[in-house]
Each structure stands twice: as C-alpha cells, then as structure tokens.
Amino acid sequence: MTTKLLTLESDVFAFAFLMYEVLTMKIPHETIEDKKILEYIAKNPYVRPIVPSTVPQWLRKLINECWTTNPEKRPKMSYVWQELKDNN
After folding, report:
1. CATH of region 8-86
2. What angle do CA 71, 76, 80 make, to 5 degrees?
C-alpha cells in the first residue's frame, strides 16, 4: 500500500464499502485473517467483494461506480446522494 492523502475520491470509495456492509451485513474479505488483510489488499488491489443479486440493481451499479479503481472515474458524493434520494 502506498501512503497518500485522503481525498474526496477516497471518501467515495470508503462509502461504497460502507454501503456494501450495511446492505449485505457482511465484512468485505471476511475470510481473510485480520493480520493479513493489508497484505491481501496490496497484492490484490482490483479485487472487490461481489454485491449479491438481492441488492437492487441500481444500488449494485452505484457501489461498483464508487469503488472503481480509478479515483477520477468515481462519482462525486453529490451524485451518490442524489441517486440515494431519487431511488427511495
């Protein structure tokens, strides 16, 4: 892992994982030991948990947009907020 400043894009990324946890009631990468998780993520930076089909399609799409690898392609939080409002 590299040390970088926290950004709005990293907040969007983190929010995607929060949505995943709330919607699935699971911890991402829960099968990996706590002491090995950083090493796992460093070796597998593109691996994301699979969002189950029980989560509405629009939310799966939103989560995937938010945790995309390229920070510049992540949506702004205002877009995320609007999507959440419009679909509830």
Report:
1. 1.10.510.10
2. 120
- What is the tens place of the pLDDT at every residue in 7-61? 999 999 999 999 999 999 998 888 888 888 888 888 877 789 999 999 999 999 9
Among 60, 38, 33, residue whose Cα is nearest residue 49: 60
pTM of this prediction exceeds 0.70:
yes
The dihedral sign for the CA sequence 70, 80, 56, 6: positive
CB-CB contact of 75 with 12 (8 Å): yes
